[in-house]
Structure formats: structure tokens, C-alpha cells
Amino acid sequence: MIGTDQPVQNQRKTSFRDHHPEYPTGNPADTTGDDDVILPNTPLDEAEQLAINYINLHKYCDNMLISNEQLNENQVDSVVDQMLDCSISQIISNEKPICPRFPREWSASEIVSEKNFTRTWARDVVEFIDWCSRFPVFVQLPYEDKITLFRSQFTQIALFDKCYRSYLEQKPGLVLGNGNVFPRDEQMQSQIDNQQLRNMFSSLQNMLFNDVVYPMTYIRMNEAEYVLIKANIFLAEGHHTINLSCAGRKLVETERERHRNAMYAKFDVLNPEPQAALHFAIQIEQMMNATESAALQMDKSMQTLDMFKKNSQLRTLVQECHMDKLQEMME
Predict the structure, then answer these.
(1) How far apart are CA 26 and CA 294, in angstroms?
(2) Is residue 38 included in any domain, yes or no?
(3) Which terminus, N or C, of the chain has the lesser number of Cβ atoms within 10 Å?
């Protein structure tokens, strides 16, 4: 085990869920009865309802898994290998086999390696599919727009999730979600056999800790804040926006404004003093910008990883999730 620090859940300020123990814990799609619907009247009401919905969504995705006892190591590796040759379209449409939904392990029991990072990456894709397929804005988009948004936002969301988990676990490194960690200690980093992997994460980790994980610790981010910021990252404006259909672009723009207003209404309540609220808002914006910058850096670095290549070419899913986005930005 790498590091023995205790998670910070009990050290954080009171979370939104502590004030709403009654929030639903099943499928978010099940909470559609008339008695359950509360129409928000203000941005703050909106924020509270969105936070409940997205906390519930995370809980639902966390429960979509199979136990380790059901897994055969060779079968998992075989399915992951097949998945790498699929397209985003095939993954979204569930046309091809995907990485098994094995439990996410956010501890730091082993240093990242070529094998466990391949599994981690594939599991990140599946978790993002599960989250997107129940995120209301994504569900309403035309099919081609779903592919565009998935491709453009996957890396940012995956990295933001890892930062939040690293903040919670308080381990000496970036936890990756398969029991693996990229350690902060340079001597421990030297134990990573794959130099390409080591080079990618060494620069990524410094950026993510300095500009995302440490600020999370400073503001003592709680779960409601995390899910609201994550939704705003997903809906953020970017180069991909111009590639959405007219209907898709209008929907995303409308929801982006609604989510931003809700997020900042929630933050204003947490920071009633104007100066404190402004400082908090600046930190959040910097955190979101840093996540975007780190995602672009990771997208560029992924093309250097031979572990994701076949016959010197990037595997299809890796190409679409990372390189196609960069090519789209240059057009």
C-alpha cells in the first residue's frame, strides 16, 4: 500500500447530502413521479435540485458494476483489447463489447503500470458512457452531437474525477481508479518501467496538483460543489461547439447558462461576503481552466504511448477520444 493517510471525507465542511439525507439513491430516471417533482424558482433552487440529481447519478454509476469474483483476468484483457478497436459510435450504441464494470478502486495499492493503466483508461471510458447516458442534456442531443460532445469532453471529465478522488483519498500521488497511483515521489516514479507513461504523468501530475487538487483542499470542496463543477466542465464552451448542430448548440448554450447561474448561486450562499465570493469564483474558474489545459496536454501525450498502438498506429478508440479532438481544433 502506498501511503497511509486517511481520506478527508470526515474533515470536509458539511456536504449538501448531509442536509438532504432523503435524496433518492436509485436510478435517477426513476424519480419522475408527480409527487417527486419540485420545480425550481430561483438559481439557488436550481442548484440544490441539480446537486441532488447529480449526486444521485454518481451513486447510480458507482453501483453499475460486477464483483471481482465474476472476473477472469484473461477475459477482461481480451475484452479491453477488443474495445480499443471500436469507435465512439459503436461504444455509445452498445454495438461492441466494452470493458467490464469492475469496481473502481481509488486506493493506492500499486504504482501505475502499462497493464493497469490500459484497464484504467478503458474503465474511464465506460464510466463516462454510463454518466453521459443519464445526463439529461446529453440524452436530448442528436446522435452526431453526442459523439462530438463525448469526444471533446472525455479527457477533461476523467482527469477532474481523478483530481477529486485524489483530494478525498489524500494519498501521495494521483490516484487513477484501478488501485493504481502515479506517485509524487520521484524515486518511486523511477520504478515505473514504461518511460512514455512516466513522462506523461510526471508533467500532468504537477499541473493537476498545483492547480486543481490543492485548490480543492484549500476550499474544502464537498460533493455538491464537485458535481456542479463537473457538469459545468462538461457543458463548457470550446472549439467543439461550432461542430454541433444548430439544435444541439442551442440546447448546450441554454443549459450552460442555466448550470453556471445555478453553480454560482450555490457558491454565493457558501460565501456571503462579496470579496470571499469573488475569490471563490476565481478559484473555480482557474480550476476549470487548468483541467482543460491538462486534458489537452494528455491528449497530445497519448499519441506517444506505444501501449495503445497496433502496427505503429493508434488504436481506433484512443485515436477518436484524444487525437481526433486535437485535429478538430486545428481545422
Answers:
(1) 33
(2) no
(3) C
Residue ranges making up the domain that contains 312: 48-180+202-330
User: Would residue 197 count as lying in a domain?
Assistant: no
Cβ neighbours of residue 39 closer than 8 Å, sequence gap 6 or more: none
User: Is 296 within a domain?
Assistant: yes
The answer to whether residue 228 sits within a structural domain is: yes
* Residues of the chain below pLDDT 70: 1-40, 67-70, 331
Query: Measured between alpha carbons, how far is 236 from 257 in angstroms, rounded to an integer?
Result: 10
CATH number of the domain to which 230 belongs: 1.10.565.10
**Where do the H-state alpha helices sit in the chain?**
16-19, 43-63, 73-83, 88-92, 114-132, 136-140, 143-169, 186-189, 195-208, 214-219, 223-235, 246-270, 274-302, 316-318, 324-330
pTM, two decimal places: 0.87
Q: Which three cell numbers stand for residue 303?
A: 499519441
- The C-alpha cell that represents 265 in the structure block: 448561486
pLDDT of residue 26: 42
How confident is the model over 269-295, as pLDDT tens digits?
A: 777 788 888 888 899 999 999 999 999
